[in-house]
Amino acid sequence: MADEIKALFNQRLGRYQAAIALEPTDRIPIAFNTTYFAEKASGYTYQEIMYDPEIWAKVEIEFAKKYPELDTFRTNLQWSPNWDVVDYRLYKVPGRDITPKSLQQFVEAEYMKEDEYRLMIDDPVTFRMERYLPRILGEFKERGSIRSYMAFLKSGMAQGIVGAINRERGARLAAEVGMPQPVMGNFAAPFDFLSDNLRGLNGIMRDMFRQPDNVIEACEALLPDLINRALATADPLKRYPIFVATHKPCFLSPKQFDTFYWPTFKKGVEMLIEAGYTFRVFLEGNWGPHWHHIAELPRGKVLCDIDNEADIFEAKKAFGHQQCITGGIPNEMLILGTPDEVRARVKLLCETVGKDGGWIPHGGGHIPEDTKPENFRALIDAVMEYGRYSDGPPPEPKSNPNIPPGVKLPEPRVVTPWEIKKAEWAIPGDEELIKKNWERLERMAYNWLLSW
Amino acid sequence: MTALAEALRDLNEKKVYELVDKMLEQGASPEKIISECNEGMVAVGDLFASNQYFLTELMFSAEIMKEVMQKLEPLMESSGVAERSAGTVVIGTVKNDIHDIGKNIVVSLLRSHGFKVVDLGVDVPAEKFVEAVRETGAKVLGLSALLNSTYPEMKNVVEAITEAGLREQVKIIIGGTICNETVRKFTGADFYANDAVTGVKICKSVYS
């Protein structure tokens, strides 16, 4: 990385990290999590970007060059062949199922039946292999068929390719334009994982009334696996926050949230914070009835994206003293409004919620694809004009690959533990060499099982 | 408020079914049972509107009501009672959006309040909405969406209804969390609703 680009990368990351930590920096960062505007403005269709990693990287690099004031941004997409090889049914894919110009869209349903809690809790591997995956992976409909074996083989390879694509794009953004990432890796609240992927909103709604104990037990059972999935996908240097998209709290009463959602979510987030990680959490919908709980989490560790349905000023009052927040610019203002309106809104936010730090401009968790370019420009210019704290420079970025001593993380689960395999071999050589790689691949395969 | 209405208001599912069975045994008419349930449903709507109930509680009330109706409908058919209807509503998620959670909540709530609902599903092109409004003569058309990229499509449907000469006949509601007054004006719709109870209230006022 050329010195100048490296310096730019460090300034941007340092500014972003300082804002999250509620520490002083030179100005309000421009750090968008999901930026669908970048895809739309590129002139490529979603299908072209999602099927061609070269185009994907080009879109992000050109966007970074066009808007050098940005500190970080992300096009929140997937490499679609990874879904195609197994015929993943939870997403409608642009160009394959829906128009090439549309975003991918999630298809929620009751993929887990109401009487399957016991199996899912007691034997998650059998549940997923025998019940869940055949329902959601078209290529696994006929278990044991040659086609299903080939699909699994291709899927393993595809996930390796996904990792390589993401690493390469991230490395190119850093090396060519000095652009860091807004997030790396994924955690999910156990309740969201259960309701989004397995039971659907209708299913979980009935379960909370008819079998509440099973819902609680399922969330507890899912937590260790979700923590391990987060650890496997997070930035090993801990420079970037782990991303969490929360989906269901806006549908829950405070009592339901306190009973079913918060206990396991809090436990998971706290455990990973203790291990040295930070978070970026999209609080989808109106989190107003629940967000006083966010103040319970360690200060300056959880950046929260506030959605349009919630009031950014109320968020600031409720937990803004503990965590940095983003948002406050209505999506419809970016899409239908004028540059003057955007400018006035950003000025107001800079002078209020962003006055002493702790705020980053954003739409409702994302920058909409139909944002007018002149409105996007107005947003950036207004931050440059009204968002200065000092002449700089921003603080140096921090990284720390080590897990602090004494932190206990859940043991990663596997399908075939080493002890079982070992008993099938005599092993005349170095057992450790074989064991280490066996376990690593077992853990990767287990995470694959969880990734659907 | 009757015991049945109270049980429904309190989302006491078992008690609702027990009371319905008991009333049927004692010879109560399905109409009387429905009328008491309606009182409970209105109370649930009020609790939701005053932020005492949340969405999953609203949904569960519609779930209980659906079960009650499944029990009552065969009896109503056999006794030759005409189908109750508070009015007809055509609804669907607009083209290029396949999300249906919000729409389905509105549909089940409308049905539990006695409306006849023509649900066109998701990713519905403008001409389908036009056709359904023309065929049913519905006075309310609901356009649902989750994605904010659908603003132009919602506007397109409103214009297609106008071009088909149906605009005077039908009130158009855009619904979903992405809707507000700015979006309503842009699309040319008559109303917007951010939640299902507001949507049902608008339908009731159109048909009152």
Automatic annotation (TrEMBL), chain A:
Domain annotation Uroporphyrinogen decarboxylase (URO-D): ranges: 172-386
Pro residues composition-biased segments: 392-404
SUPFAM superfamilies linked to this entry: UROD/MetE-like (SSF51726)
Gene3D superfamilies: 3.20.20.210
Coiled-coil parts of chain: none
Signal peptide: none
GO molecular function, one term: uroporphyrinogen decarboxylase activity
Superkingdom: Bacteria
Residue ranges, annotated region (Disordered): 390-410
One Pfam family cited in the UniProt record for this chain: URO-D
GO biological process terms on file: porphyrin-containing compound biosynthetic process
Name this protein carries in UniProt: Uroporphyrinogen decarboxylase (URO-D)
Organism: Neomoorella glycerini
Automatic annotation (TrEMBL), chain B:
EC number: 2.1.1.13
Coiled coil: none
Gene Ontology terms for molecular function: cobalamin binding; metal ion binding; methionine synthase activity
GO biological process: homocysteine metabolic process; methylation; tetrahydrofolate metabolic process
Domain B12-binding: 86-208
CDD domains according to UniProt: corrinoid_protein_B12-BD
Gene3D superfamilies: Cobalamin-binding domain, Methionine synthase domain
Cellular component GO terms held in the UniProt record: cytosol
The keyword tRNA processing is annotated on this UniProt entry: no
UniProt keyword Lipid metabolism, yes or no: no
Residues in B12-binding N-terminal domain copies: 1-84
Family the UniProt entry places it in: Belongs to the methylamine corrinoid protein family.
Protein name per Swiss-Prot or TrEMBL: Methionine synthase
Organism: Neomoorella glycerini
